[in-house]
Amino acid sequence: MRSALLTSVALVALATAAHADTLAITNATIYPRPDQKLERATIVVRDGVIVAVGVGVAVPAGATVIDGTGKTVTAGLIESATRTTRARSRSRSRAPVA
Known about the structure:
Layout: H1 2-19, E1 22-33, E2 36-46, E3 49-54, E4 64-67, E5 72-74
Parallel strand pairs: 1-4, 1-5
Antiparallel strand pairs: 1-2, 2-3
């Protein structure tokens, strides 16, 4: 359930960031590192780059604001089951392609 909420917040943030110069996710529980938990914190994203994270971070004028109350945000979205290389099947023919 928690990962679904994180995914939802992240996808909305990314989609909104593509259409706005500045985005702020406010009042969220944020884990900028696995060993650091920030309650009721804010993330500010400008032009697709995170420029501020913390408690008491001011929301810039004109920013699109997403209320993160009750939501959890972590650093990065990683699909840990994804391989970075392509495995080659041994059953495939190795004949040259013409």
